[in-house]
Design goal:
Elements: E1 22-25, E2 30-34, E3 38-42, H1 45-49, E4 56-57, H2 71-82, E5 90-95, H3 102-113, E6 120-125, H4 138-148, H5 160-171, E7 175-183, H6 186-189, E8 201-208, E9 219-222, H7 228-239, H8 249-257, H9 262-272, H10 277-285, H11 295-310, H12 314-324, H13 333-340, H14 344-356, E10 361-363, E11 367-369, H15 372-382, H16 388-414, H17 429-452, H18 458-471, H19 475-492, H20 495-511, H21 515-531, H22 535-551, H23 555-571, H24 575-591, H25 595-612, H26 615-631, H27 635-652, H28 655-671, H29 675-691, H30 695-711, H31 715-732
Parallel strand pairs: 1-3, 4-6, 5-8, 5-9, 6-7, 7-8
Antiparallel strand pairs: 2-3, 10-11
């Protein structure tokens, strides 16, 4: 080796030959081989001694107000620390939507770990999702890291592979903490990962909007939206106004309008330092977008969406636009496939890819949702890319798909006989019921959209959906649909559809104890339907009037209405209508003590409901027959009736029916001497009645509990339940 550091020819190879190897060396033996035939040996003892006591650190401190709780960074640090091993860095990946607080969490994690990494603590912005900037190439970042490590420009290789080797060689025996913020993809990360020897300890923290696959992570941490309570806490803490009530409705609404994203919560919280929450709520509600009047926050949120959208491939951009224009609050792959005109399997893959890029949020039952705050930016940004007429035609594909699925659900849940095998996309009725519960919001949005788009089958789709929701006890959603059906019928001049919607609204009012309102609606429906000679519809309205009269204890009026309903249903050859009218008449006979007549009427009603394949109507008739058998002291037969009714109500998801069947089952098992079983049934029934705010049902259950307590010799409990029943019955008429 010559004094100037250039290598001489070896003993077997003349200088200047084709196999010439040039070498340079400084310090003590760290090596990195670059390209073909060039070897550099680098040593840093002199460089290190030239900077005594200086810790190489470019970490940005975390914000003073953290999200997600102060103990979270410490817990993450402990998990990452446990994964550090010789030979490879411990890698933590924090991923989530733009503005969710990934960088803040990563910096807090780095601050927890920093004292243990005494050689270097480095933070680099990779600009993966920075508006107006392209993602930084790995070679450029490696140059920055090597310069920070003390290398002169002349010492840094030109190729990315050489830089990566040199970087790893430098870090091999050191304690290095590296924070790589805002990464676009795994390819950007891989060349930057340091290596470590037995004596080295390296940890890397990466943040990205994408769920980067292919990285060997110790920690994979989704940074989600804040919980509502945490979002409110962040607003209060940023505002610095400790006098604000964290539980106030205005603060909760502000948090919701901010989408529970720190990106929006922090600037809105800063405004709270000088404004009251109510004023901000009114300003944000009055705008097209919640942040529209808050220019800086609005621009940042818009940029967060735009840069993420532009980073998508063309096929994912098309799928995302399909999600944006979906009429419901959430969706599944079947719906997006129908809307986009692609197979559901392909839609599944596309939705998962969007999920991995934090453009969607996953919900239970394989459903997805677009973030509320970004949805308005998406619609504004993408409005010019898809023609409304084309989207309207695509929505018809969605309506047809959902109408078919709803028809299948109706057949599975509402049939008199349970199917022996799966139907359509569902394995069994329970699977269908769970889908209906999860998809209720989408179904309401799609049904309203079908009516607005004047789809020719929109009314039928909306009514069937509303019927399913009504049986499930989702009265508010069912009411929204029936109101929309009535409005669409008014617009179209369809008196039959309008009358039936009014009658359905009457049933909703009756089911929630608003008997005067129900009577007015049933009367209006009867008048409308009589004008168009819809005898089956008239039967439904008359049956409703009979039920409200029976609820008030007016048996004569109720009997007259049920008799008229039966005549109209027979005229229309409506088997289900006849079954419901006969059930009403049977209840009147039972209440009058005419048990034989009541039994015959309930049995006849059950046969009509089987003929109509109406499982809900059958359950009511069978339960009524059980009451007759119980009154006749035929306890085994009564119990079978109540269990059969219970099974039908459970399959349909009819919690109202389940509650009454459980009350009856508790009463009959108590009379059979099975006291513990009876008490369990009655407790379950009471909880269901309370959840439905059904005072009459609660009163009946308390009466059964009182009877059970008397039989068991517990006078104190019996008096308590009797008092509760009397109190509830005294208030039920005004409910």
């Amino acid at each position: 080796m010559t004094p100037d550091g250039r290598g001489t020819a070896g003993p077997d190879e003349p200088a200047g030959s084709g196999g010439d190897v040039r070498a340079s060396a400084r310090g003590h033996a760290q090596q990195a081989v670059i390209g073909q035939g060039v070897q550099h040996n680098y040593f840093y003892g002199a460089s290190g001694s030239a900077r005594p006591g200086v810790v190489l650190s470019t970490l940005i401190p975390p914000p003073s107000i953290l999200v997600g709780g102060p103990d979270r960074p410490a817990a993450l640090a402990a998990r990452l620390r446990a994964g550090i091993a010789p030979g490879k860095p411990a890698l933590a990946l924090l991923h989530g939507p733009g503005g969710a607080g990934k960088s803040a969490t990563a910096r807090a994690l780095a601050a927890e770990l920093a004292p243990e990494f005494t050689d270097a603590r480095l933070e680099v912005d990779l600009a993966g999702f920075t508006p107006g900037s392209a993602p930084r190439p790995a070679g450029e970042v490696l140059t920055e890291l090597l310069r920070l490590a003390g290398f002169d420009g002349a010492d840094i290789p030109g190729e990315t592979a050489g830089k990566s080797q040199l970087w790893r060689a430098w870090a091999a025996d050191k304690k290095v903490l590296l924070l790589l913020d805002n990464a676009r993809d795994a390819g950007q990360i891989a060349p930057l990962l340091p290596s470590s020897s037995f004596h080295g300890r390296c940890a890397v923290v990466v943040t990205s909007r994408n769920r980067l696959t292919g990285l060997d992570t110790v920690l994979d941490v989704p940074v989600e939206l804040l919980e509502p309570e945490a979002a409110v806490e962040l607003l209060v803490r940023v505002s610095g106004r400790g006098s604000d009530d964290p539980s106030s409705d205005a603060l909760a609404e502000l948090a919701r309008l901010c989408g529970y994203l720190p990106l929006a919560l922090r600037p809105v919280g800063a405004l709270l330092a000088d404004l009251d929450a109510g004023t901000l709520v009114r300003v944000m509600r009055s705008a097209n977008r919640p942040l529209e009047q808050l220019a800086e926050a609005d621009q940042e949120a818009a940029a967060a969406f735009t840069v993420s959208y532009e980073a998508l491939t063309a096929d994912l951009q098309r799928t995302l636009r399909t999600c944006v224009w979906h009429p419901g609050p959430d969706f599944d792959a079947g719906s997006i496939g129908a809307l986009a005109g692609i197979p559901a399997e392909l839609a599944t893959v596309q939705l998962v890819r969007l999920l991995q890029r934090s453009m969607l949020t996953a919900l239970p039952h394989r459903r997805y949702v677009f973030h509320d705050l970004f949805l308005s930016y998406a619609r504004q940004r993408l409005a010019a890319l898809d023609h409304e007429d084309a989207m309207r035609m695509s929505r018809r594909g969605l309506y047809r798909h959902l109408a078919r699925v709803v028809a299948t659900v109706h057949a599975l849940l509402s049939a008199a006989e349970e199917p022996t095998a799966g139907t359509g996309p569902f394995e069994n009725p329970e699977h269908a019921r769970l889908w209906l519960e999860a998809a209720a919001g989408e179904l309401v949005g799609a049904a309203v959209g079908a009516l607005s788009d004047s789809w020719e089958l929109g009314g039928d789709f909306a009514v069937r959906t509303a019927q399913l929701l009504y049986v499930e006890g989702q009265y508010e959603r069912a009411g929204v649909l029936y109101e929309q059906v009535r409005a669409a019928a008014d617009l179209a001049g369809d008196e039959r559809a309008r009358g039936r919607a009014v009658a359905a609204l009457g049933d909703l009012a009756r089911s929630t104890g608003r008997h005067d309102e129900a009577d007015a609606l049933f009367g209006n429906a009867l008048e409308i339907l009589g004008g168009v000679a819809d005898t089956a519809g008239e039967a439904d309205a008359l049956r409703g009037l009979g039920e409200t009269a029976r609820a008030r204890g007016d048996q004569d009026t109720a009997s007259a209405h049920f008799t008229s309903a039966l005549a109209r249903a027979r005229q229309a050859d409506d088997a289900a209508g006849q079954g419901y009218a006969l059930t009403g008449l049977a209840h009147i006979a039972r209440q009058r003590g005419e048990l034989d007549a009541a039994g015959r009427l309930f049995a006849e009603a059950a046969e009509f409901q089987r003929r109509a394949d109406d499982g809900v109507g059958l359950a009511y008739a069978v339960r009524g027959l059980g009451h007759v058998r119980r009154a006749l002291r035929e306890f085994d037969a009564a119990e079978r009736c109540f269990r059969d009714a219970m099974a039908l109500h459970q399959r349909a998801g009819n919690r109202f029916g389940q509650a009454y069947a459980l009350t009856a089952l508790g009463g009959v098992t108590g009379e059979a001497g099975r006291f513990e079983e009876a008490a369990a049934h009655l407790d379950d029934a009471l909880n269901l009645h309370r959840a439905a705010n059904d005072r009459t049902g609660q009163a009946r259950t308390h009466a059964e509990l009182a009877a059970l307590a008397h039989v068991r010799g517990d006078g104190v409990a019996a008096r308590r339940h009797e008092s509760a029943a009397a109190s509830l019955l005294g208030r039920s008429d005004g409910a």
